[in-house]
Amino acid sequence: MTETMAKSQSATDKRSKSLWLLGLLIVLFSVGSSIGVYLFMDSRQQASANEETTEPKEAPAPIFVKIEPFTINLQSDEYSDRLLYVGLSLKVGDETTRAFLEEYMPEVRSRLLMLLSGQQADTLIKPEGKQRLANQILAMFDEPLTEPQPSLDVTGVLFSEFIVQ
Fold first, then answer.
1. Are 72 and 117 spatial neighbours (Cβ–Cβ below 8 Å)?
2. How do residues 52-101 score in pLDDT, each as one tens digit?
3. Where are the alpha helices (DSSP H) in 54-148?
4. Spatial separation of the C-alpha atoms in residues 43 and 45, rounded to whole Å
5. What is the pLDDT of residue 115?
6. Looking at the chain, which terminus has fewer C-beta neighbours within 10 angstroms, N or C?
7. Helix, strand, or coil here: 43?
C-alpha cells in the first residue's frame, strides 16, 4: 500500500508542478502582452502629440515673371496673314532666377519672338500645340543668355492671353 501511495503522491507532485508551471507561463504571457500593448499605445500617443505640435508647412509663395503681351506674324501654308497675340508668365523657383530674367528681359523677349514667329497657326489652335509651345519655351532657357550665367530655375509657362487670328 505504501508503494501505491508513493506512486499516487509522485503523480500528484508531477501534476502540481505542471499546474504551477502552466500558471507561471500564463502570468508571464499576460505580463508580456500588457507591456507590449502599453508600449504600442504609448508610441501612438507620442506620434499623435508630435503631429499636433508640428505646424503644417505652408507651400512657398509662387514666383512669376510676367512678360508683356505682344503680337507676332505666324507662318501659314495659305499665304494669308495669320497673327498670334500672346501674353505669358514664367513660373520660377527662386528670386535669383526672377531677378536675372527681369534684368535680361529684352533678350528673353527677342528669343520668344524668334521662337513664336516660326510656329504654324494651325498647330497653335489645338491644345497639344499650346502644350508643345510651352515645352519649347521652357527648353529655350537651356541655352544661356549670357556668360557666366547662374543656374535658372524656370518651372512653368502660363499663358494669360492667347489669340490666333
1. yes
2. 556 667 878 899 999 999 899 887 766 678 899 999 999 999 999 999 99
3. 95-103, 105-117, 121-124, 127-140
4. 5
5. 94
6. N
7. helix
Give yes or no for a contact between 114 and 154, defined as CB atoms under 8 angstroms apart: no
Give how far Cα 118 sits from Cα of 27, 57, 113, Å.
Answer: 84, 44, 9
Strand partners, 161: 87
- Using CB atoms within 10 Å of the CB of residue 132, give its burial: 0 to 12 exposed, 13 to 18 middle, 19+ buried: middle
Q: Which residue has the cell 507662318?
A: 75
Distance of alpha carbon 113 from the chain centroid:
33
Amino acid 11 reads: A
CA dihedral (101, 106, 111, 116) positive or negative:
positive
CA 1 → CA 4, 6, 7, 61, distances in Å?
Answer: 5, 8, 10, 97
Separation of alpha carbons 80 and 74, rounded Å? 10
Instruction: Let me know: does 94 contact 63? Beta carbons within 8 Å.
Output: yes
Retrieve residue 44's grid coordinates: 501612438
